[in-house]
Amino acid sequence: RGAMNMPPCLWLLQSQMALAQGAGFHEAKILFDKAIAGLHRCAFRHLEALSCELLAEVADEYGEHEWATHYVQKAYGLYKEWGAEAKVRQMREAFPSDLHHVDASSAFSLKSSRSFDGLPGRRLRRTSWWSEAKLSVTDIASVA
């Protein structure tokens, strides 16, 4: 037994472990989406945003560029909602073309983030900070 708000955190770790064990994108996405939904219900906006950002990276690595754009946009909106201004600025700098339609001065609608406007085959346009700053899946799996 554990606290009611802990299962979504476990699901996030399980999604990372599944990737470390060779799961494909669609299998991992199911686990990430389960974690994201649970984190949303628990109002853990920071972890929900992080989960979306991680899933965007995974999607991009698997060539699922439309999903990558979708989850970057969703992560951006969640970070903005949470008030993480430094992270919002960092994402705006890292993904200018993927976040170009999001008005930096207005509130981001999570409903609008459910549809993505990425073009087929288009990779996320990001600077090198993501590659330099990301945690390795094996790093996360080793502490679980």
Automatic annotation (TrEMBL):
Signal peptide annotation: 1-22
Keywords annotated in UniProt: Signal
Name of this chain's protein: Anaphase-promoting complex subunit 5
Organism: Grammatophora oceanica
